[in-house]
Write a sequence for this structure.
């Protein structure tokens, strides 16, 4: 810390006490915009469209990689060959995806349902009996797109995965291990129950399924084979909410990692005449291992941006001279399960943006491990700007762990560190963050972009 008084002991402090009194209303104001972003954006495609829309009229350039990755760029005063300041976040979140042939009728329960295959690491039981919305795109053979967003408006219908009542759950759930009690294959979503009424309209066996297909054709011009070429996602239908008597927390779906998407986007919009070229990069597919042509592993996208900014530049030189933040959320100490955290090093809600020197698991395997020099540099930026921060790590050694996109950028020769707000209930349909940490993350990214 930069206070006059020397502090011999490193202590995690409340972010609420580090910010000045004048800053406190700004935190709540900023988080209203954040909640509004989260309620409008629940998929990777919607994130990218929103970023593009927000960037209009701003002092930055927008670059798009297909439908679900993008970058915002503010050119710096120094030549590009001296490197960039890059903040990378991911636009995808865990959810239920529809299978290619999703619709079926279950004659026993007299319902029509969708088959799903979950995306990313979820705890299956979280997804039962909650109201769900239906988002995504269907692409017809001729290339026409049908966009879906159903379940978000007050009068929209919602969808839901059924569960067995406790009176009957002993054999099939209660006596089993948690991971065996609810299988991924059983996460089917209820989509209707009304059969075709007039017999002459239809001679098929599945009258409810037929009625749903008829309705989908009338409303959207969609036929069953169209589901095969679609990215359709089932996500929680509710809106972000303030939490607690003091309204200090936010409960919402998709905060991993749209907390970092929103804060880095806002930070970049406010960057003026940076010394180094500032880039906010938004990638997809992080939750399934960063595989695919819109993921963090697509270096060609970054290369193409460098070439566009300066056709004569040596892209490898830019990479080697660049500094990056892997902007992803960290695990917050969970009150009813503190035993899986090593509390001196773990991050807690409300103590600022969490800095993880290394990620990975068991022996730092698969990690990006930032060198001391780079950690010191980031620490200086945070302290000099009085931004609340804390260390973070995902759990006790050998208890688990997790990776981020950090390693994909360090392997290009960049300096990389993980920095993002802690999240409680991570990967659940209702993730919790602290408003003070969200604001601290935004300030941290902004000061990093502006650093020289
Ligand atoms: Mn993440
Ligand atoms: Mn995640």
């Amino acid at each position: 810390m930069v206070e006059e008084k020397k502090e011999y002991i490193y202590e995690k402090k409340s972010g609420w006490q580090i910010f000045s009194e004048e800053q406190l209303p700004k935190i709540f104001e900023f988080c209203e915009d954040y909640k509004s972003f989260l309620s409008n954006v629940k998929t990777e495609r919607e994130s990218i469209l929103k970023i593009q829309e927000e960037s209009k009229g701003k002092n930055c350039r927008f670059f798009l990689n297909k439908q679900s990755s993008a970058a915002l760029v503010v050119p710096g005063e120094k030549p590009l060959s001296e490197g960039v300041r890059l903040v990378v976040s991911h636009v995808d979140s865990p959810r239920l995806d529809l299978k290619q042939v999703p619709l079926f009728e279950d004659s026993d329960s007299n319902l029509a349902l969708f088959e799903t295959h979950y995306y990313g690491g979820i705890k299956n039981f979280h997804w039962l009996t909650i109201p769900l919305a239906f988002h995504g795109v269907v692409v017809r053979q001729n290339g026409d797109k049908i966009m879906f967003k159903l379940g978000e408006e007050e009068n929209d219908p919602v969808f839901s995965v059924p569960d067995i009542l406790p009176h009957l759950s002993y054999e099939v759930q209660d006596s089993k291990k948690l991971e065996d009690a609810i299988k991924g294959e059983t996460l089917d979503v209820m989509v209707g129950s009304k059969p075709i009424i007039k017999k002459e309209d239809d001679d098929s066996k599945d009258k409810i399924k037929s009625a749903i297909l008829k309705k989908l054709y009338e409303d959207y011009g969609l036929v069953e084979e169209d589901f095969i070429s679609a990215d359709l996602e089932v996500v929680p239908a509710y809106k972000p909410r303030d939490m607690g008597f003091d309204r200090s927390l936010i409960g919402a779906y998709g905060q991993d990692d749209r907390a970092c998407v929103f804060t880095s986007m806002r930070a970049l919009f406010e960057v003026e005449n940076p010394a180094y070229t500032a880039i906010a990069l938004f990638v997809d597919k992080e939750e399934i291992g960063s595989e695919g042509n819109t993921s963090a592993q697509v270096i060609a996208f970054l290369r193409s941006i460098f070439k566009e900014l300066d056709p004569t530049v040596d892209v490898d030189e830019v990479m080697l001279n660049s500094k990056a933040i892997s902007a992803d959320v960290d695990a917050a100490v969970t009150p009813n399960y503190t035993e899986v955290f090593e509390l001196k090093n773990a991050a807690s809600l409300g103590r600022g943006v969490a800095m993880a020197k290394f990620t990975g698991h068991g022996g730092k395997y698969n990690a990006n491990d930032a060198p001391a020099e780079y950690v010191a540099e980031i620490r200086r930026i945070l302290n000099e700007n009085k931004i609340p921060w804390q260390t973070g790590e995902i759990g006790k050694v050998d208890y688990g762990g997790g990776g981020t996109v950090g390693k994909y950028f360090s392997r290009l020769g960049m300096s990389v560190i993980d920095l993002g707000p802690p999240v409680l209930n991570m990967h659940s349909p209702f993730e919790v963050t602290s408003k003070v940490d969200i604001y601290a993350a935004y300030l941290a990214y902004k000061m990093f972009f502006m650093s020289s």
Notes: The chain has two domains: 15-93+253-449, 95-236. The first strand starts at residue 61 and ends at 65.
